[in-house]
Input
Amino acid sequence: MLQVENLKVNAILEMDQVKIEANKVTCIIGKSGSGKSTFLRLLNQLTSPDEGNIYFKEQDITELDPIQLRRMITMVPQTPIIFPGTVRDNLLVGQTLSGMDPTTDSQLMQVLNRMFLNKSLDMPADDLSGGEKQRLALARAMLLSAEVFLLDEPSSALDNTTATEVIDAFTAFVKESNKTMVMITHDLQLAERIADATIDMNQYSLSLDRKEYSNE
Amino acid sequence: MSESDAIDLTLWQLLFAYVFIVILWIIVRVKGIPREKLIIISTLRMTVQLILVGYLLMIVFEHPHPIVTIVIVLFMLGFAIYNVFKRANVIINISVKKTVAVAMVLGISISMIYFLFVVLQLDPWYNPQLFIPIGGMIIGNAMTGITLGVNQLLIGMREQKAKVEGALMLGATPKEASHSIINEAFDSAMLPTINSMVGMGIVFLPGMMTGQIIAGASPVSAVKYQIAIMLGVAGTVSITVIIFLHLAYKTFFNHRAQLQETKQND
Ligand SMILES: Nc1ncnc2c1ncn2[C@@H]1O[C@H](COP(=O)(O)OP(=O)(O)O)[C@@H](O)[C@H]1O
Ligand SMILES: [Mg+2]
Output
């Protein structure tokens, strides 16, 4: 699905050959500051590497229109982005921005329920708690027609129980709809439980203090 | 507005007006506020600059010439563009500066041509007595508007980076991703003009109208001019700011639709 070759971002990361398989859950683990977020941003074309290539379905992504690419490979950032307006507005904005027709309220309620967010569609989204905003952002991603979901520490603002429920539900959604998921997590047990493959960023990191790394 | 109706100040009357500054200077001196020099210098500058402009305009008005009129307006325009760069309280990089210049030149030319030829229908078209002051007003207002627009756009792009990228992640085009920032910048650029239209005639009498009335014109004819000018100003500010914003937001993105690291100076 995704493949990188000799990828390098100066002073941050260097990856020779990494593959991300279609319809699989890939977890990215690694120390804080090792370059996990940078790697996801590269896959989403929010930044370009200094060297090397990224292929999406065997095609060099620099040959693809970046906006179309982001509609196929979407990303949910670590800090959820909430737009002005209601919960409904926030769910629909993703569809609008990615050029899709907006869905019905009942479908919106469905994704909210899957993310354990029992809130009214008319509620101002700004009134949600941090964890609820994160689940809203995940629910919004579920409404997109993307093939690959890049999730940057989606459970960081959630308590353990909710995190497990939400991540399991998202994983189930990805599996049943034959999508691909790439998730950053610092929770090794979670990674072990749901990941089909794991990428350890520590081994590709240039930003980590070398000494600290070799002491691990 | 024939010359004979105008109320001319005698030299003595004018000198009496300087008493205000003398009083200010004495107060500042007695209080020990270290601004004596500044007061003298700014009074002198104001006096000398206005006298020079007065004589320059007198010469220009007596010998109307299209090239001279246009050169003066272009000089004002150039100075206004320079002022935008200086007065913006954020650092503006070279590509934004270019868009400011393009927008001011385009927006002001379009609206001045329309205003002078369609609305005012001057005869001759380069009549410096109207062309220059009206050009000055339009340029001055566009300058204020675009300065506010530049500030708000740059602040918005800096403070709402995460939101812009959040929209990009959802598949937005750069234009869609900066939509709300563009709108905020437009609002803040237009607000002073809108407010001054609302307060017009009640809170204050605009300078040009006051000037015409003092110079002996009938208030109704002065009002007609003022209405036309206000509409012209509002139109120019909006055209200029819209052109600016629609060129400027693009400079924050590269050809891969990525939000660029804002370079402080290049
Ligand atoms: N825009 C940037 N410019 C320079 N350095 C950056 C930038 N973004 C991140 N970094 C640095 O790159 C390294 C990796 O960051 P990041 O990818 O966020 O790590 P992680 O997500 O693994 O915590 C860090 O040392 C960080 O300071
Ligand atoms: Mg990170």
